[in-house]
Input
Amino acid sequence: MSYNPVIREETIAFVAQLREQNEMNESSRSVYFPCSCRASRSSAFHALDRVASTACGHAVCRACADSARDACPLPSCRRPTTFLKILDDDTRICPICNCSEPAKRAAFPRCGHTICCACFWQIRLNAREKELLTRCPLCRSEASSTVKPIFLIEPVLVRRGRAGGAMASGRGEGRRKKVDPEEDEDACSRKRDAGQ
Output
């Protein structure tokens, strides 16, 4: 079975676009990804207590996930779900490319390891070209076509008044404005989160 050359070229272009976003985040320092719970807005929990909804990708603290039982704890979502422990440390550094502020991250559903989406799509492209299963590069657990990765939806803050950042027509310099992440791979989640 040969890999469709059109899809291959589109994937290569998409990976390049994601890497460009990652480089912009690193060089401008205008975007900040706080390690806070998206449901309770609390930053008083440790990064090792983070979980992600397998249905929608929302990253929340373990306490909010436990209190919501079998649904996403965000009031605007509430999708039935299970939760996956996110295996990362206090930083967002991608363990593959060492990007310190990746625009988007993916978690492998069998192990919970996270990498930036640019690395994920590159790994998936390489595996498909060789007709292999996509595997976590850290522990080798598989993410096949039936076991999809979880594209994390995490809080994003934009620092205003910084070079390369969003400027606020002379007012509010240094203030941060909470925004949703740029588009994720799940169109339903994107539409649902637009109302937040």
Q: What stands out?
A: The CA atoms of residues 83 and 106 lie 14 Å apart. Residues 5-193 form one domain. The two ends are 43 Å apart (CA to CA).
